[in-house]
Amino acid sequence: MDTEPRTVRANGITQAYRVWGPADAPPVVLLHARGADGADWAEIAPALAAGPRRVYAPDLRGHGRSDWPGGYAYEAMRDDVLAFLAALGIGRADVVGHSLGGAVACLLAQHGPGLVRRLVLEDVPAPFPLDPPRPPARRPRGDLPYDWAMILATDEQRNAPDPVWWDHMGRITMPTLLIGGGPTSLIPQEQIAALAGLLPDARRVTIDAGHLVHEARPEEFLAAVAEFLSPGDRTPS
User: Fold this and answer.
1) Are 24 and 53 spatial neighbours (Cβ–Cβ below 8 Å)?
2) 0.70 surpassed by pTM
3) Which residue in 83, 96, 104 sits closest to 57, CA to CA?
4) Backbone angles phi, psi at 54, to 5 degrees
């Protein structure tokens, strides 16, 4: 069952998170897409926890029940995850990231490769500048489960990503699984192929489900991820 969010103070903000599985099991961190929160993994997390694994699903800053502090650079989200791991005493974990969460996971793996045992990137584009740029977004009416300033800030970085993100992809030396959503995804699949070609230890699979792979095809997604993270394939921490 999905648990009620817990909170931890890390990197100067309150971060909400959900957790499943035995406390002494190998840790897995799930990072959600833009506009979602940790509850987005509610169908996936219990199955991963049965591994057994200790599964953590934080709300990124500006999302859900985590603080909405402004300052929504991808690097700030990366630093939040670094501080989250430190606050919970997690020295090394498998990390699964979807879309925005996958971009944050890439920066995490670049910055602290020793922290990430294995990396899963679900329909994550390569950090190429958008051409044409994404036009200014218009705020929907009513209350939102995320900070609208986060949308504007991440659009700006998505239009013109820091070239260092691409230059440092070679630092992601841990085994990495890239899951593409196929031709119906809004992410150009050739970008996923380009990213896979740059990583030293990458494998790539396509699940024809569109951008929301783990929601549209949860069984196939779980099968690919569980095999990749299988206990028999673990190396000592």
Assistant:
1) no
2) yes
3) 96
4) -95, 110
